[in-house]
Amino acid sequence: MSFRNGSSYKSGGGCGGGGGYGGGSRFSNGDSGYGKKSFGTSSYKNDFARTTKPDFSDLTPFVKEFYQPHPSVASRQPHEIEAYRAKHQITVKGKNVPDPIMKFGEVNFPDYVEAQILREGFSEPTSIQAQGWPIALSGRNMVGVAQTGSGKTLAYTLPAVLHINAQERLKQGDGPIALVLAPTRELAQQIQIVARDFGSSTHVRSTCVFGGAPRRQQAYDLRRGVEFLIATPGRLLDFLSEGTTNLRRCTYLVLDEADRMLDMGFEPQIRKIIEQIRPDRQVLMWSATWPTEIRNLANTFLGDFVQVNIGSLELSANKNILQIVDVCREDEKERKLYSLLQEIGQENEKRTIIFAMTKRKVDNLSRIIARAGWRAGAIHGDKSQADRDAVLRSFRNGKIDILVATDVAARGLDVDDVKFVVNYDYPSNSEDYIHRIGRTGRSSKTGTSYAFFTQENSRQARDLVNVLKEANQVVSAELESMASRGGGGGYKGGYGNRYGTFKGGFGGGRENRFGGGARKSFGEKREFGSSNGYGGGERSHKKFSDYS
Ligand SMILES: Nc1ncnc2c1ncn2[C@@H]1O[C@H](COP(=O)(O)OP(=O)(O)OP(=O)(O)O)[C@@H](O)[C@H]1O
Ligand SMILES: [Mg+2]
């Protein structure tokens, strides 16, 4: 995709606006800027009530089933299909599920789509694409659950483009035909770039509306007419309530990061938007996690649907990621982070995302890290959107190596070659852990994640142990014992390896990239000159050179 290399990443073709993150969800925590604030824009609350339910009594028919299996797919024997699904760990649930395709050529994409696939250099469909495309192109409602970085964006974008091309052209005053809702402004912009790359040659106009940016350009695009709209919910509701656009023509609805979108924080907004869309619409929901809490709600929006899971049916992480968990004390984290960044600094590829729980902490950490000489930037919900976009652009194009962020960066972001994810603060639920670490190890790449896990997080130890075991990762005795205590028991201190090397200190002796003897270890005595623990001096000087 063009956003893979930073230089070609632009912020969604002059789009603006709203969005915001819905209120009080299980995915929100503290002042993370991802869930606590009430609905993003000021006007949204006031206009909420004004968005009335349209009259669906006299609907014009539309086409949603245009899938014709390729002859080689149609002639495939059931045992071949079963073998393919087993090999790719594809589980399907639902009636009359179409067979997967096995090669790009087996789905009749128009030439312009095939040309773009070639340009991207993709050799074969990912599992979620192989099974997802025939379902989506058959007009079925679906849920697609597949690991982070496994190509879900294209799994819904290409069918969207075909769906749009099968409909009557837009007339003056018509709203979009395909709508993708995403939880963050950055993710919405990223998705629009995929839509643009795969849709523009067929005159599918797309735009992105999201909070925090000026409305003028967004409103202009909407009024002029776009077939494909990518939006964060708050800003879209603003435009709907003002009458800038409408969803009367919308027949293809995607919830990306659907579990997040159906979580309490966003659910009222999503409900309000879906009410505007004709009931015979096609609905597609996607995520790497599918917690039980939202399943019933999802069902109410889906009606009859097909569910596709790739890999485990339980909560599971991308197996290209080496996961390292360090059980430690809160007051050890800064020192450990410093050592870790020194180690990473010696790597050729050092693009790193550090997650912290609160906006204040993100600001503090990024300041400390930058002062110590690393090239770092921060994004969180209190920063201006212009700042957030600029920092992410610098991260994508390599001007900075370290991005410090709240969970606003946890979902969906696809930045090429992120090699390390550090959970400075362990997230408040296991789904967020899966998504955060999933910023590395994307497509067929590998990556490493670190988590500082304190006694305060002990309630999550059991879940984490399950996730680690499912992904064949080493579980340290400390973590295992926290899990078996079920969250009880106080921190006793004295864990032998607290200042050990990564090799020892993380994951109980698992070999990893920091295992080499020549590497500096956590155990080396380091003095941190200043009160923040990262005081300047010679050491940080050295690190300047590592990153310049
Ligand atoms: N068939 C393919 N072969 C190789 N790479 C692909 C293929 N399809 C998509 N990709 C690339 O894989 C990367 C990850 O894709 P994408 O962002 O869609 O993942 P995702 O499943 O949505 O992940 P997340 O759960 O984190 O949102 C992108 O850079 C994309 O260009
Ligand atoms: Mg995604």
Could you walk me through the main structural features you see in this protein, from its secondary elements to its overall organization?
With 548 residues, the chain is an alpha/beta fold. It folds into 2 domains: 4-28 and 90-310, Rossmann fold (3-Layer(aba) Sandwich); 321-546, Rossmann fold, CATH 3.40.50. The protein has 20 helices and 14 strands. The strands form 2 sheets. An 8-stranded mixed sheet has the order 1-8-2-7-6-3-5-4, sandwiched between helices. It has a 6-stranded parallel sheet with strand order 9-14-13-10-12-11, sandwiched between helices. Helix 9 runs parallel beside helix 11 and helix 17 (461-470) packs across helix 18. The longest helix has 15 residues, at 185-199. The protein binds adenosine-5'-triphosphate and magnesium ion. Magnesium ion binds at residues 152-153, 256, 412.
Oligomeric status of the shown chains? single chain
Return residue spans where pLDDT drops below 50 for at least 5 consecutive residues. Answer: 1-46, 488-548
What is the helix tally? 20
Q: What CATH architecture label of the largest domain applies?
A: 3-Layer(aba) Sandwich
**Strands in their spatial order, largest beta sheet:** 1-8-2-7-6-3-5-4
Tell me the fraction of residues in β-strands, as a range.
5-15%
DSSP E strands, number: 14
- Percent of residues in helices comes to 25-40%
Describe the secondary-structure layout.
Elements lengths: L41 H6 L23 H4 L3 H10 L2 E4 L17 H10 L6 H11 L3 E5 L6 H14 L12 E4 L3 H15 L6 E4 L5 H10 L3 E4 L1 H10 L9 E5 L1 H5 L4 H9 L6 E6 L4 H11 L2 E6 L10 E7 L5 H13 L6 E4 L3 H13 L4 E4 L5 H12 L5 E4 L14 E4 L6 H8 L9 E7 L7 H10 L6 H8 L17 H4 L31 H11 L1
Parallel strand pairs: 2-7, 2-8, 3-5, 3-6, 4-5, 6-7, 9-14, 10-12, 10-13, 11-12, 13-14
Antiparallel strand pairs: 1-8
Helix pairs in contact: 5-6, 6-7, 9-11, 17-18
The structure holds adenosine-5'-triphosphate and magnesium ion.
